[in-house]
Design brief:
Layout: E1 3-6, H1 27-31, H2 35-51, H3 57-68, H4 74-83, H5 90-101, E2 105-110, H6 114-123, E3 132-135, H7 136-139, H8 146-156, E4 163-167, H9 170-179, E5 182-185, H10 192-200
Parallel strand pairs: 1-2, 1-4, 2-3, 4-5
Helix pairs in contact: 2-3
Length: about 200
């Protein structure tokens, strides 16, 4: 394995920094917006286009909030969102750093839109821990689409069989394996040692 691809949400990042609860747990209390209303009016209708780079998050969210929560600015909700979905698994990061120090290149492989991808790399400083990021809005396809894995492999510049991958979603693992990556589903209690051993088996 020359490259390890690492998923973000559910692997590296686990909800609110203070307690690990889902990011929108207290959305209504904090910002006066019901989670289900946001889900139905924004995520259900627009998220696929946003996360694959065909639409932009801030103007689309501003349009939706103008109808369902005119008291709330899009940027305030985005800041709340990103800040409340940023609890890093520092133990895993330390293990990844040790593997990287041994010569394995590290990339994030994640379904993200452009603003959060930048937040992950710049604000959370993951750019100092990874050699780069392959994300859905930049690739135009989201996991588990075959095109995501094909484009990430092409841009990595090495054969698929040389790539390892950890992700918490079974469908993504299966798609990666079908493309030729070595992949292990990340679950509570998983360790990087388990993954490396599985890739070598």
């Amino acid at each position: 394995m020359k490259i390890l691809m690492v998923d973000v949400d559910g692997v590296l990042v686990h909800g609110r920094p203070s307690d690990g609860l889902p990011l929108f747990t207290y959305l209504e209390r904090d910002l006066g917006l019901k989670v289900e209303l946001l889900r139905q009016a924004f995520f259900k209708i627009y998220w696929t286009d946003i996360v694959t780079g065909r639409d932009a998050i801030e103007p689309r969210l501003a349009e939706v909030l103008g109808k369902i929560a005119p008291h709330l600015r899009a940027r305030k909700l985005i800041d709340y969102w990103f800040e409340n979905d940023s609890r890093l698994d520092h133990g895993l990061l330390d293990d990844l750093a040790a593997l990287r120090a041994g010569g394995t290149k590290m990339f994030l492989a994640t379904n993200q839109e452009h603003m959060r991808a930048a937040y992950l790399m710049d604000t959370l400083k993951l750019s100092s821990r990874f050699d780069g990021i392959f994300y859905s809005a930049a690739l135009g396809h989201q996991k588990p689409a075959t095109e995501f894995f094909r484009l990430a492999t092409e841009r990595a510049g090495i054969p698929a069989r040389e790539i390892g991958f950890i992700d918490d979603v079974e469908a993504n693992i299966e798609a990666a394996r079908q493309f030729g990556w070595k992949a292990m589903q990340w679950t509570p209690g998983s360790t990087l040692r388990d993954a490396v051993a599985a890739f070598s088996a």
